[in-house]
Amino acid sequence: MQRRHFVQSLSAAGALGSVSLLSACATAPGASAPHVVVVGGGYGGATAAKYVRLFSEGKVRVTLIEPNANFISCPMSNLVIGGQRDMAFLTHSYANLQQRHGVQVVRDRVNTIDPARRMVRLAGGSEIAYDRLIVSPGIDFMWQALPGMASAEAKARVLHAWKAGEQTLALRRQLEAMPDGGVYALAIPAVPYRCPPGPYERACMVANYFQKSKPRSKVIIFDANPEIQSKRGLFTRVFSQNFPNHIEYRHGHTLLDVDATTNTLRFEVQENFRAAVANVLPPMRAADLAVNTGLATVLRRWCEVNFLSYESVAVPNVHVLGDAIQTSAGMPKSGHMANQHGKVCAGAVVSLLLGQPVPSMPIVANTCYSFVNDTDAMHVASVHRWDAQQRTMLVVPGSGGVSPAPNEMEGRYAIGWAVNIWADMLG
Amino acid sequence: MKTLVQLLAVGLLGAAALAAQAQAPAAAPAATAAPAAAAAPAQPPSAMQIRVWASTCMACHGTAGRAQPGMESLAGMPRDEMIRKMQGFKTGRSPATIMHHHTRGYSDEQIAAIAGYFAALPR
Question: Are residues B17 and B54 in the same domain?
Answer without folding.
Answer: no
